[in-house]
Amino acid sequence: MLYRTDVRRNLSVLGRAPLSRRRLLVGSLALPMTLLGCSRRRSSEQQGVDLFIASDGDFLAFRPDELTCRTGAVVHLTFHHAGKFLSARHNWVLVYPDQMEAVDKDAEKTEGVISTDDPRVLAVVPMCDKGETMMTEFIAPAPGEYPFFCSTPGHAVDMNGILHVTE
Amino acid sequence: MKSTKKILAILALITFVLALAVPILAAQLKSPDEVKTALRLLVQVSNDFKRQITNKNFARVPHEYMEYTEAADALRTSIKNEPADFKNRVETRLKTAVAAYQKISDMSSSATDPDKLMAEHAKAVTAMNAVFDLFPADFRPDPNLPPPGRGRGQRS
Lengths: 167, 156
What we know:
Mean pLDDT of chain A: 81
Structural class of chain A: alpha+beta
Strand order of the largest sheet of chain A: 3-9-8-5-6
CATH superfamily of chain B: Nucleotidyltransferases  domain 2
Distance between the termini of chain B: 73 Å
Radius of gyration of chain A: 24 Å
Largest sheet of chain B: none
CATH class of the largest domain in chain A: Mainly Beta
Helix content of chain B: over 70%
CATH superfamily of the largest domain in chain A: Cupredoxins -  blue copper proteins
Low-confidence stretches of chain A: 1-19, 33-42
Number of domains of chain B: 1
Order of helices and strands of chain A: HHEEEEEHEEEE
Mean pLDDT of chain B: 85
Shape of chain B: elongated
Helix content of chain A: 25-40%
Number of strands of chain A: 9
Largest sheet of chain A: 5 strands, mixed
Oligomer: heterodimer
Number of strands of chain B: 0
Largest interface: A-B, 28 and 27 residues
CATH architecture of chain B: Up-down Bundle
Shape of chain A: globular
């Protein structure tokens, strides 16, 4: 008995008014839209690409210094700091064309730390100490050539490369 | 007269042999790749010093000094199995070089004039080159060569 009473109360709280046309419309579209969303996500995953990049040991260079992926692909990028001797930290920053110098200069003020909110920046792997490996994920932008670099102050001059995004 | 000439000839021969001895010894280094890497790291960090000074990024200079000591340790490790005489020669000159870079680091805390620091850097490079002289020519990194990275000129 008590259980039934409680159920009735809950129903009254939720409201028993007849469904409006708008609610019916939204309700009838919810399932197909959800399925559509799932199918889109699945197609992105099919275009997923795994990229691997590392520092050239302790030297200020990336190996490889050129990467390629297709536009719209979900890129899983892994960066490894392959240094053994020096305590220099490295990261991987992908920016829009012609933005490297400006972003690098601004990063000097923050010891190389890059804000992920920066509109000039497409993707960032956080700073790594020697031997560390970190990942980032991003959607490959429109076709073009996108520079990447290490934002530790003074490193970008030598430690940079290009992401080729193809059709 | 004859004996004087003989003595001079012997001395010249000894000098010649000694001059050859160091490079020959170095050419037979037990870990040549490690030595080459360590020497290149010393040049890389030295160039980083220069870059930070030129950019007036003086706060980064002590960090470069720390890296220089790490590169120096890498060189020590790379020659740890070499004869004591050779190690001692390297150590003596390496200490001088490290001290020269430490002087730049110390000066950077109150520096406002990049030219003064660059003058000290030039002295430190001379001290570093004295270390390189103990190794055969093909082991010595060319400070004028671009680093292995793409460099600014190749960026898009």
